[in-house]
């Protein structure tokens, strides 16, 4: 059995071929340009292999309701050219195989969930946040994605402001100081006028970031009671997550029994940004076995 | 078929007998005193009827994990005498029937969910908040309760503070200015030195309340994408929910497609605080049919 993975990001696409044990047999990446050009590259890549099913984890927002006439579309994205793109329909007409369709963060969440079960962690639920150019989250409970009227948009929750950050307006075009507006990668530029990779790990801005990210972890802990929360994306790092654990411990104030925080708040177990690819392989295999 | 419902609150217990169509055949209520006295009254009440199953929706926190040796217990509650009470074990030893066990808000959520399906609303998921002496929430997705490592504790999320409310410290003993600490019934006493029922509906405090409650609705909308959010409890009222809808619309700023707000943010469809009783009847019937 061969399955395909498309991780469709706003900047680049990563396509890969895997087997039923989720091993990568081949992969490629290319920049995200227009839908026509980019989706044509996707089709041409997979035509070289005889895959049985494909899973697509895409930047959004997406229509994921099966009974919608727009199922399989990228809907009203701010990304130029991509609004109202029939992603799944286009690929399916060309490749004529079963396709699973979900968000990029759901794909990563599923990859991390599968990896946890493969390594014998006893978990039934997992939340995955990406903190990068944007902020988003996906959640799985008992193997199923959370989200009934649509997929989650966990990056846009409002938060209690850090006392040393009251003057920063936030950069989300929709909500200003929501989570994304306070901790996404471009906030480094907005707060400190330099790129995030040039910000020293002992800069106090990381305490502010940790305060907000811990609140996101607290919200999702109180609402979903997950077994594990994984933080990926370019902004997440070991030092930041150490601070997030400390902030979360202080904030939650022993109100809930939480798992050991080192196991509860973690970086992705799958290295080199491979979470979504593994997730896609597993989702494509699941689709074939359904 | 006859089933039983226990709605176990911190102030009073409501016990009821229902049939498979969820009609109330009999009911009683009594104050919550010590566990021994109160649970004995529960047993004595149900011994008068020949019920086939019972569902208990209790104040918490509860142990709901089936594989825990403390399953069926009220755990570390601040309520005097009730910590570490083997609620389900005690009742089961006396009545020897199948018992479903969940939180008060989950019971209410289930009642409202069942009522929505009975009235042919097309919903797959629902969140129920109570805003009363405390604040809590329960959630259902596709007929199943949300909460893997434990039940939700949605009342304790942190929030962006209202600009006219920055000096109010909040009254939650664990988190000060979490949702419960900012909008539960006793906050009227703390902010205005009078009882909530004496606060006029045009007092500006309701705008502050609505601002926080709308944030809770926004969080849960972004994280769970439910089809409906119901607000019960003594503080919830029509005028407040009108304000909550307006605040939510402003805050979310068309970022998500939401259902019509009049149908999305509502008071309980079941009148006279009957949501948990109906939910319990349905859960007990479901237990028998499982």
TrEMBL record, chains A, B:
EC number: 2.7.1.4
Keyword entries, A-Z: Aminotransferase, ATP-binding, Carbohydrate metabolism, Kinase, Magnesium, Metal-binding, Nucleotide-binding, Transferase, Zinc
KW Transferase (keyword) present: yes
Keyword Zinc annotated: yes
Single annotated GO MF: fructokinase activity
InterPro entries the UniProt entry points to: ATPase_NBD, Carb_Metab_Reg_Kinase/Isom, ROK, ScrK
Cofactor entry: Mg(2+)
Record field: transmembrane: none
Reactions catalysed according to its record: D-fructose + ATP = D-fructose 6-phosphate + ADP + H(+)
Family membership: Belongs to the ROK (NagC/XylR) family.
Record NCBIfam families: FrctkaseScrK
Name assigned to this protein: Fructokinase
Species the sequence originates in: Liquorilactobacillus oeni DSM 19972
């Amino acid at each position: 059995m061969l399955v395909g993975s498309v991780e469709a990001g706003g900047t680049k696409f990563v396509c890969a071929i895997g087997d039923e044990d989720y091993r990568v047999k081949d992969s490629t990446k290319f920049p995200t340009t227009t839908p026509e050009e980019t989706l044509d590259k996707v089709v041409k890549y997979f035509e070289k292999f005889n895959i049985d099913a494909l899973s697509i984890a895409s930047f959004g927002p997406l229509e994921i309701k099966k009974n919608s006439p727009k199922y399989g579309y990228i809907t009203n994205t701010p990304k130029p050219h991509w609004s109202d793109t029939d992603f799944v329909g286009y690929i399916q007409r060309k490749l004529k195989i079963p396709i699973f369709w979900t968000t990029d963060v759901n794909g990563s969440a599923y990859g991390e969930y599968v990896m946890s079960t493969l390594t014998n962690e006893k978990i039934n639920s997992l939340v995955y946040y990406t903190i990068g150019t944007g902020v988003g989250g996906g959640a799985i409970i008992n193997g199923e994605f959370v989200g009934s009227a649509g997929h989650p948009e966990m990056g846009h929750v409002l938060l209690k402001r850090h006392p040393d950050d009251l003057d920063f307006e936030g950069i989300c075009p929709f909500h200003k100081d929501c989570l994304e507006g306070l901790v996404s990668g471009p906030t480094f530029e907005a707060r400190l006028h330099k790129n995030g990779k040039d910000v020293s790990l002992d800069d106090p801005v990381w305490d502010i970031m940790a305060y907000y990210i811990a609140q996101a972890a607290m919200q999702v802990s109180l609402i979903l009671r997950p077994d594990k929360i994984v933080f990926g994306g370019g902004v997440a790092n070991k030092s930041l997550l150490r601070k997030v654990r400390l902030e979360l411990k202080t904030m939650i104030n022993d109100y809930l029994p939480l798992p050991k925080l080192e196991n509860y708040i973690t970086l992705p177990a799958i290295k080199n940004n491979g979470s979504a690819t593994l997730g896609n392989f597993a989702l494509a295999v699941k689709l074939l076995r359904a």
